[in-house]
Amino acid sequence: MAVIRIPVFIIASIFALLASAPFSCAQDLLFPANQFGNANLRPNQSLGGNDSYIQSQKNGVFEPLSEFNEGDIFRKQSRPVGRLSMLVRGKDGSEGVATCTATLVSDDRLLTNYHCIPGFEGTVLKAIIHLGYLRQDQDAVDSYPVDIDPLNADAGLDFSLLHVEGNPGQKYGHVEVVPARVEPNSSLVIFHHPAGLPLRLTRFRCKAYPGAAYNGHVFRHRCDTLGGSSGSLVFDNSHRVVALHHSGGLTGDSQSSFNAGTSIQAILEHLGRGLAAPNTAIPSPPAATPAPADPVQDHFIASIPERISQNRLNVRSGPGTSHGIIGSIPAGTKGVVVFDGTCRKSDDGLTKKPWCRIRWQGLDGWASSSGLRR
């Protein structure tokens, strides 16, 4: 597993920024608000600048698409992939620019994560997508306004289907979403904008999790990503779509760690009419016959207490201590998504407090409500 090496002082600065950031719409790196609209985004000087990221990726696993010939298959396949930039406002009124990755699935539709737009907390004020952003020294990069009211979205599946103005798919093409279900350890490919950088390709040691690659609708993979990679599609070697990447969790020192996404088949089943239906919003159910409540849609944002046993909250594969530990969340962590419609008694009856399904940094499991604070 190749690991991206970032200087310690940069990592410390990023974590300091994240700890103080009020935006738990889960974009991992915020840029100054006055840079909204710019193709080349740069963090404040205290974060070392994007140059430090580029240096850290030299000879790494993030391959710049600009280094491929225009006729190369990867260059062609990456054309519909763009960087989604959002001007977001936190609860305290402060603003910043957050980035994700999004992919054209028709001439005027994008697929990305729910936690990007509309987000779990905070307010997205406006959004644009840059397409064809390959180098930081480009003279011009095409940008298109994106509607921040989704055509269709689901918090539990963490996807959002958005309308983009100007029909950019007529110039950049779009991905024909042919779904694929892959075997554990299958080779994969991701096109993305890690840390808001120009378009990158990840393929080196980019594979499906060698254990249980699927856990319900969650797809586990071991492809390197960074903040800003959220919303990128995961492809197999035949350019069929496997999943929509949504969260990290992969570490270089653990062979059992993984990043996570949503199986594309689950998203297609939810949509019913498909991603590239006619250019009208997908209608909501009639008010007279509302759809049954989805317990996964009902959520809140929680934090982990500063003082907690062993300085971490264990996350398990099911509700109760009889289920195996699949990860943990450090004490003091904020931005944990809790699907309170799923909260229930433990399976083993050994704990009094309810257990709830949670999601944080690639972990999609169950945790005791005793370790969660609203």
What does this structure look like?
By secondary structure, the chain is mainly beta. It is built from five helices and 22 strands. Strand 14 and strand 15 form a beta hairpin. The radius of gyration is 20 Å and the shape is globular. It starts with 7 loop residues before the first helix and ends in a 6-residue tail after the last strand.
What structural keywords apply?
22 strands, eight-stranded antiparallel sheet, Thrombin, subunit H, 374 residues, 10% helix, mainly beta, single chain, SH3 type barrels, 2 domains, 5 helices, disordered N terminus
Oligomer designation:
single chain
Helix/strand-derived category reads: mainly beta
Radius of gyration: 20 Å
Work out the count of structural domains: 2
CATH topology of the largest domain: Thrombin, subunit H
Overall geometry comes to globular
What's the pLDDT, averaged over the residues? Answer: 81
What's the CATH architecture name of the largest domain? Beta Barrel
Low-confidence stretches: 1-28, 46-59, 278-296
Query: How far apart are the termini?
Result: 36 Å
Let me know the number of strands. Answer: 22
Helical fraction equals: 10-25%
What's this model, at a glance?
With 374 residues, the protein is mainly β.
